Amino acid sequence: MKALIYTATEATEYRDAPAPTQGAGDALVKVEAVGICGSDMHAWHGHDPRRVPPLILGHEACGTVLDGPDPGARVVFNPLITCGACEFCQTGRSNLCAGRELIGMRRPGAFAERVALPARNLIPVPAGMDPAKAALTEPCATAWHGLALAARASWRPIPECRTLVIGGGSVGLLGGLILKSWGARGVRLAETNRLRRETAAAAGLEVFDPLAVPAESAEYDLVLDAVGAAATRAAAIAAVRPGGVISHVGLQDWAGAFDARTLTLSEVTLIGVYTYTDADLRASLAALHDGRLGKLDWIEERPLAEGGQAFHDLHAGRTPAAKIILRP
């Protein structure tokens, strides 16, 4: 089969790769659409020691079952493979399983014509749904999970909250659209890239450039940091109101200090967020399908064979798309 293979720092090759090996309980899926995630970019930049080249990256995918339960069914992936037996798996928090694994990390991912993964990780796609839009389920679930945790921690219901989203990639943009659909009193999105600001504005969000006009200090009840850099953590802490909540979803870097004094004296809740649960994925797929999150016309589709150029374009900030979807 053909695959886009991460071969070295800032390098990929589209070439022949061994067919996937199905383990016990695995399904074989023909990939129809797969998104480039920020974590794929992180690996491509050589910043993820867990992803060692040569490796097939990719985990935000939709496809059709070739071999396994319900052949011919269109499905999206829960790319997080867990043990299914530990306390976390048994109580609905499988994303915290100590034995978790992700396709495209140490086992081959979805930047390929076919991929194998446990059949229990497949979620049926509603009839007639565009596979490129269904492939947004994974990043949508990441934002959904982070906001659901924040909503539980907030002293005020979401419709009474003034909210700030930092970062206009797919997780940030979807986070803003989710907050809007949940009835948040105000939703603003901070993004430094002009092209992405234009995309987010066209999707119906209030957008600003934080380099030109920083967010107001201590004004937001809920802040979603979809970048996770030292600068955005500082911006989130500066922007959140006393008693507010910061949901830390992105992990662009993990170095650097943060303002523990403000967190403590203002009783700010800082929540670390890792991926999603199966329930988050199913809720996100439903919301993407039924139109609650808009037309989703801000994606860009390219052939998998041109995926290498897509990585370079994302690196250089040359595309307005919040998500590039590759089609094998």
Describe this structure in words.
Helix content is 28%, strand content 27%. Strands 3, 4, 5, 8, 9, 16 and 17 form a 7-stranded mixed beta sheet that branches. Strands 12-11-10-13-14-15 form a 6-stranded parallel beta sheet, sandwiched between helices. The radius of gyration is 19 Å and the shape is globular. It has helices at 38-44, 87-90, 131-134, 137-153, 170-181, 194-202, 230-239, 260-265, 278-290, 307-316, and strands spanning 2-8, 11-16, 26-35, 60-67, 74-77, 80-81, 101-102, 114-118, 122-124, 162-166, 186-190, 206-208, 220-225, 240-248, 269-272, 299-303, 323-327. With 328 residues, it is of the alpha/beta class. It folds into 2 domains: 2-136 and 296-327, Medium-chain alcohol dehydrogenases, catalytic domain (Quinone Oxidoreductase, Chain A, domain 1); 140-272, Rossmann fold (3-Layer(aba) Sandwich). α4 (137-153) packs across α5 (170-181) and α4 (137-153) crosses α9 (278-290). The protein starts with a strand and ends with a strand. The model has no long low-confidence stretch (mean pLDDT 96). The protein contains 10 helices and 17 strands.
Mean pLDDT: 96
Integer-rounded radius of gyration: 19 Å
- Overall structural class, as computed from helix and strand content, comes to alpha/beta
The description of the largest β-sheet is:
7 strands, mixed
Percent range for β-strand residues:
25-35%
Shape category: globular
CATH topology of the largest domain: Quinone Oxidoreductase, Chain A, domain 1
CATH architecture of the largest domain: Alpha-Beta Complex
Following the backbone from N to C, one meets helices and strands in this order, namely EEEHEEEHEEEHHEHEHEEHEHEHEHE
DSSP helical segment count: 10
Q: Would you report the number of β strands?
A: 17
- Give the termini distance in whole angstroms: 10 Å
CATH class of the largest domain: Alpha Beta
CATH homology superfamily name of the largest domain:
Medium-chain alcohol dehydrogenases, catalytic domain
Extract low-pLDDT stretches.
none
Fraction of residues in H or I helices: 25-40%
Overall tally of domains: 2
